[in-house]
């Protein structure tokens, strides 16, 4: 009987750990006073189009003031670059270095982003090219 109870406890513990892993990709976000769960790429999309105002200079599939998201992520993928490190100013630009001076003005805003927000932004940008 004790072994049976112990087995049920271990299974319950394993199942609860597994459900925790699923939620690690989701963020709880409050929108209009209502809390909702978003995947990293969904949160990244909201940041790209909202708080970050990235859409102002970066279009999804064509060059504008800055390179397109598809072009950026293709290069970051090919060169195994770290977009989060770049956004934190911890890595040099590898896409359109000549437009870097324009991008520099946005780093003050990016400093207000948490690591999770930057990672969500990266997840969204990669999801655009998948």
From TrEMBL:
PROSITE patterns: CYTC, PROKAR_LIPOPROTEIN. The keyword Protease does not apply. This is Cytochrome c. One of its GO terms (molecular function) is metal ion binding. It comes from Aquimarina brevivitae. Transmembrane segments: none annotated. Residues 39-129 form the Cytochrome c domain. Keywords: Heme, Iron, Metal-binding. Pfam families: Cytochrom_C (PF00034). InterPro entries: Cyt_c-like_dom, Cyt_c-like_dom_sf.
